[in-house]
Design a protein that fits this description.
This protein has two domains: 240 residues, Rossmann fold; 209 residues, Rossmann fold, CATH 3.40.50. Helices cover 43% and strands 18% of the residues. The protein binds ligand L263DTV3 and uridine-5'-diphosphate. The site of ligand L263DTV3 has 17 residues, from helix 1.
Length: 473
């Protein structure tokens, strides 16, 4: 079996004991843990004039290669172009996009640095799988250095429609970079449609059925691979949590009240202010729920070096304070707001206790929390998933109560419905969701992508003649 080489900006090293608040690191650790291979990425450290020598070590079946970056390059790459330009763009927040040429140049320098450090570690028959928007130009850089093997790319966040994507001054250059991969994976079919429409209408790429693209001299494929979770492990963690000290403390603190839970990085894409407002609206419009339901929002701080994330934190502190100030009783605090990350076992206990899992992003690539909440439920008495129509997970979670996160009153109504939902309906909805969580696991996702990467070019049909391009996209 060919060796799997995973490249991502964020790597969870085995020494890290703290919970990782981010789906990519969680998912890749689970994917690689089973198969083994090389995981290459940023060490999390910076040093002026950092060398191109990665720190290499082995733990279990995984070899790690961790690269230190120059501080200014790291800033331009991560806080600058990746999270100041591409993240808001791909989440449809044009008002938050900043585009600075220095950031774009730093982004490219870091990708070049990654390629130079990675190349000596590669064997020709390795399967290289690059993850996420921090590393789109990596294949171009590896090809420039002469690497000809298979390289795949997975984009964990949404791909915006051409109307939005065209606001990026570097739009054509990035798609040229994508064309250097053999397989480009996106989370949903609508992301695929958005990218293929851009390719056929803006850069005159030729499309063939199955997502095959010819762009200049390159042939590659674009397809949807919705990411999953390690369902078995989550079910196990949730079962093991029953009767644990943590679960007992949680139950005791709720004193028989229903729990609604949210777990999100503190990120403006997650729709947190609207979620808080919806909970406030529930307490205002349905006073019978006062003192009978508690909401817990776990929101570990994320990307504190980007200004918008700091202002969101202040906004949420104010909102939480005003809801609690208005509705709290001497023996009931309506909203518990926690800014630190929790380990998976603790999350599993909290999910299982919660009558409602509340997932309200304004846009989200997938949202693994939605799937984890489903996996952690007690099949005999499951809770209700309330899910944004703008999360990638909505395509699979047909049993959720689907909400529009811009509609605060509509979300409050869904919370009211969820709190009153009869057991039989809860079971039916949960079963529909759980079937998907169990059939599309992280292992299935991994194997599916890798097997299609291995054969990406062999199965390519002839491209369609140009007159059919637009209708195919
Ligand atoms: O690395 P950070 O800057 O701390 O951010 C954490 C990760 O956030 C994003 O996760 C995405 O991937 C998930 C798994 O596919 C998906 O469910 C979610 O919808 C996405 O937002 C980001 O894409 C990762 O690169 C970050 O590591
Ligand atoms: O305190 C926390 C909060 C979140 N997570 C994990 O972080 C991931 C978040 O992934 P998701 O796809 O929902 O969103 P992202 O943060 O990647 O945008 C999930 O696996 C969570 O279980 C965690 O381990 N501890």
């Amino acid at each position: 079996m060919a060796r799997l080489v995973i490249v991502s900006n964020r790597v969870t090293s085995p020494k890290e004991r703290a919970a990782k608040a981010g789906g990519l690191a969680v998912a890749l650790r689970e994917a690689l843990g089973k198969r083994g291979g090389l995981w290459f990425g940023w060490s999390g450290e910076t040093e002026v004039g950092a060398s191109a020598e990665p720190k290499v070590f082995r733990s279990g079946r995984i070899t790690y290669g961790l690269l230190t970056l120059d501080p200014e390059d790291q800033r331009a790459h991560y806080a600058g172009y990746a999270n100041g330009t591409l993240w808001p763009l791909c989440h449809y927040r044009l008002g938050l996009v900043s585009f600075r040429r220095a950031d774009w140049e730093g982004y490219r320098r870091v990708n070049e640095h990654f390629a130079r450090a990675l190349l000596p570690m590669l064997k020709p028959d390795d399967i290289i799988w690059v993850h996420d928007y921090h590393l789109i130009p990596l294949a171009s850089e590896l090809r420039k250095l002469g690497f000809e093997g298979r390289i795949g790319y997975f984009h964990h966040i949404p791909w915006p429609t051409p109307a939005v994507y065209l606001s990026l001054p570097s739009h054509a250059a990035l798609v040229q970079d994508l064309s250097q991969y053999d397989l480009v994976g996106l989370q949903t079919e609508s992301d695929v449609r958005a990218l293929l429409t851009y390719i056929s209408s803006e850069v005159r790429g030729w499309l063939a059925p199955g997502g095959f693209v010819t762009l200049g001299p390159r042939r590659f494929r674009v397809a949807a691979y919705p990411i999953g979770i390690d369902a078995e492990a989550f079910v196990e963690d949730a079962r093991a949590a029953v009767g644990s000290e943590e679960m007992k403390r949680l139950h005791a603190s709720l004193a028989g009240r229903a729990l609604a839970v949210g777990v999100d990085r503190l990120d403006y894409s997650k729709g947190l202010p609207n979620k808080f407002a919806a909970f406030g609206e529930l307490l205002k419009s349905w006073p019978e729920h006062r003192s009978t339901v508690t909401m817990m929002q776990i929101a570990p701080v994320s990307r504190g070096e980007v200004a918008e994330y700091r202002s969101l934190r202040r906004e949420l502190e104010e909102l939480a304070g005003s809801i609690n100030g208005e509705y709290a009783e001497f023996d009931w605090v309506p909203l518990r707001y926690l800014n630190r990350p929790f380990q998976r076992a603790t999350l599993a206990a909290i999910y299982r206790t919660a009558r409602i899992g509340l997932v309200t992003p304004l846009r989200d690539g997938m949202n693994l929390v939605a799937k984890e909440y489903v996996a952690a439920q007690d099949p005999k008495d499951p809770g209700v998933l309330v899910l944004s129509r703008f999360a990638g997970a909505v395509d699979e979670m047909s049993g959720a109560l689907i909400i529009n996160p811009y509609d605060v009153e509509g979300m409050a109504e869904a919370l009211h419905t969820a709190l009153l939902m009869p057991l039989e309906e809860r079971r039916e909805r949960w079963r529909a969701n759980m079937d998907k969580v169990e059939s599309n696991t992280i292992h299935h996702w991994c194997e599916h992508f890798i097997s299609e990467l291995a054969t990406a070019n062999e199965t390519a049909p002839d491209p369609l003649p140009p007159q059919y391009q637009a209708s195919r996209a």
